[in-house]
Design a protein that fits this description.
Structural class: alpha/beta
Number of strands: 8
Strand content: 25-35%
Pfam families: Cons_hypoth95
Order of helices and strands: HEHEHEHEHEEEE
Strand order of the largest sheet: 3-2-1-4-5-8-7-6
Number of domains: 1
Helix content: 25-40%
GO molecular function, one term: nucleic acid binding
Distance between the termini: 34 Å
CATH superfamily: Vaccinia Virus protein VP39
Protein name: RNA methyltransferase, RsmD family
Keywords: Methyltransferase, Transferase
Number of helices: 5
CATH class: Alpha Beta
CATH topology: Rossmann fold
InterPro entries: DNA_methylase_N6_adenine_CS, RNA_MeTrfase_RsmD, SAM-dependent_MTases_sf
Length: about 180
């Protein structure tokens, strides 16, 4: 696993030990950024189920200003911090151990607004849809926000969630990527 492109391109990342976390493969990561980017001119990123932190780190490597990387597992937090260290730009990242719903409430109180959101929870349709609706209701999504959902092939997400419509769906092996934008 590595950072595919950008300022930190080619640097190696480690996966979270054990089987509770599925790292996004380099092939899928590169394909995702080709669909949504591939490069950014600033912006705030949220990786709500960060695992190893690879997607948020990739977004900052490709020009995002700052990424918030959230996970509730201690092993994931430890791995994320180790992976961020390879960038030598630790100030561009905030790593928080928290439940997704609790942290969204905190972000709302802090007045944050995200431009790019990655949702790769343990495969569960309702969690993704509920999280998008909660982020929208808490005004956490910027006017041009993109939400990237990673699921298994069997998961069927709604074409429209709140004000967000599917703008792209791609399948890569056993992984499906669904991109939402305001429509």
């Amino acid at each position: 696993m590595r950072i595919v492109s950008g300022d930190f391109g080619g640097r190696r990342l480690t996966a979270v030990p054990g089987t509770k976390t599925r790292p996004t493969t380099d092939k899928v990561k590169e394909a995702v950024f080709n669909v949504i980017g591939p490069y950014f001119d600033g912006g705030l990123v949220l990786d709500l189920f960060a695992g190893s932190g690879g997607l948020g780190i990739e977004a900052v490597s490709r020009g995002a200003d700052h990424a918030y990387l959230i996970d509730r597992q201690f092993a994931a937090i430890k791995t994320i911090k180790s992976n961020i260290a390879v960038t030598k730009q630790e100030t561009k990242f905030s790593v928080l151990k928290s439940d997704s719903h609790k942290i969204l409430d905190k972000f709302s109180r802090d007045g944050l607004s995200f431009d790019l959101v990655f949702l790769d929870p343990p495969y569960a349709q309702q969690k993704i849809e509920n999280d998008i609706l909660k982020m929208e209701n808490l005004n956490l999504l910027g006017a041009d926000a993109k939400i990237i959902c990673e699921t298994n092939l069997e998961t069927v997400l709604s074409d429209k969630i709140g004000q967000f419509n599917v703008s792209n769906i791609k399948e890569y092996g056993i992984t499906k990527i669904t991109v939402y934008q305001k429509g």
